[in-house]
User: Fold this.
Amino acid sequence: MAVPSYYTRGETIAYYALRVFVALVLLFLISPILAVMPLSFNSESFFTYPMPGYSLKWYEDFFFNPRWTGSVKMSFFVAFATTILATTLGTLAALGLSRSNFPLKSTMMAILISPMIVPVIISAVGMFKFYAQLDLAGTRIGIILAHTALATPFVVITVTATLASFDKTLMRAGASCGAPPHTVFFKVVMPLILPGMISGALFAFVTSFDEVVVVLFLASPEDRTLPLQMFSGIREMISPTITAAATVLVLISTALLITVEMLRRRSERLRGVQV
Amino acid sequence: MATAQAVPADGVMRAADGTPLKTALARAERRERLKALGLVLPLFAFIVLSFVVPILVMLYNSVYDPDVAENMPQTVQALQAWDGRELPPEEVFAAFVADLQEAQKNKQAALIGKRLNYEISGIRSKVTTTARKVGALAEGPYREAVIAIDKVWGDIDTWATIKRSSSDWTPFYILSMLDLRQGPDGSIEHMPADRSIYKDILVRTLGISLLVTAMTLVLGYPVAYMLATSPQKTASILMIFVLLPFWTSLLVRTTAWMILMQDGGVFTQMLNFSGITFLMNMLGVIDGEPQLFKTRFATVVAMTHIQLPFTLLPIYSVMKTISPNYMRAAKSLGGTPFYSFLRVYMPQTLPGVAAGCLLTFILCLGYYITPALVGGPTDQMISGFIERAINSENNWGKASALGVILLTATLILYYVYNKLVGIDRMKLG
Assistant:
């Protein structure tokens, strides 16, 4: 990382200044997440360094206390259901959107993406009132429907992006070989757009798994998701178990991030894009 | 053989079955379009039913308010003939007493009081007291008896306000969001200073969003530049620092800041350790240890941290497409490095800057969780007031009107974003 020899003094200063500045910003980005993790092993229930001793008791609370385990189960249930619904609906829509031009296509696209843009408090309040009239407030079905609405834009965007580089003549080739449309989809299209679909599904999963404002309005008090359990815990008094929960959530996000990055690189390699 | 010829005798190209080729093509295209539409429709219907309609129904509450009309039907009826110049006649008071007796029986008196209290402060308890006392009034004349219970019923303005609120439709909530109100005579006037709080909330929400957007740009632009110009291996390692926070839940990141910003917490320890606390005490900025938790500073820092990847990534993806040859050309033509950067490189990054900043600004407007957890009472944004209007005040009209303002601002910016960047080119991660 030496400075090229033809650099002027000003350029050399700018070169190092940029590197120092970027290092500080990256530190700012990563340090809050890293700083909290060790605190989850603290033997005392306060949040300063140096820690007086180490203990796994907060993890014990997180993994064995039914209040926490129940919320984790609830979160996984809702997130899986949301992922399946959102991926199916979103992929179908993306296939239609990339297929041909039809009237009001851009308006429809704008409406399909809008749940990502509309402030979540407005979505939450509107759904709360409307679902209450349909007796869906306080039920898991209500939360799943709401989360699916919030998660589909991510699927639509990722799958549409994958389809943009998809060679449509392959579908015609399949059809001209005599395959019915669904066979063409499952045997030709899906294997090629699968990385995009999986990325979209993971985005949908995370959207539901991390969502807290909608569940704040729609969840019943005894059926909480993990973020809601954390949120209500934080508002009263931070228990160190929350740092344990946060650490587990960071590990889950890291795993998802690595999966999505690997998929992206794989699909770029398949398409011959220079990585 | 006819179909195989380049141009048939009559000059019309035909498909195998004899239909003109143009018609056959149009038909095939229409079928294709319908198929595409059919694929989009399930999701479209789902979004409209589960998302768009609920929001529209909710926003309807900002102008639709039948509380007075439903609970005081006889009074509303009797007031129709009243010209508003002097106190209403005996019939109105008789109807009013009948309505209040009914309301008291159905336990709706508090609701009437609550609704009227939005416009005449302090009337809530007077309504409930009057409703309790009119039970004893068996027969007229009611006018003097009601005024004897509370002087407020002897005021023409009270009745003018009731008459005006008697419609199912009211501009009241939307007007009050602009710190305006209707006077008793129906004219629009400014809210008294002690009740005009909404302008503050709007200005604060826009101010925090603008500040956070500017901060993310200042911090994000150099990082994006470095990521785009570094060798692939270095860049992908640096990228992890950006993507890991991006994938970590907002709640976890807010919690992290909450813990770090506690009084005497890790952040304060860092400031003490690095001598910044000492320096700031010397300069007289603070006295003693810095108090960070529940401040505007903490809110802006946490929001900047959360939004930074949203601003950075679009700038990065535009920078990736800029060929280094432009800078080489500028320098070989004699431009100083700084001048070349300013006049050649930076203008090309502007589409990315616009995309990233707009997205961050739009998302900032709707922040609720972060200000609620790390901010103090004076750092709450519109979303926080919507939540409070519903959960603490049970005032759907107010919540909906705030929602109308927030949603309008968001949708205008979304429209600009769509025109400028195009939602179909939005990238994730």
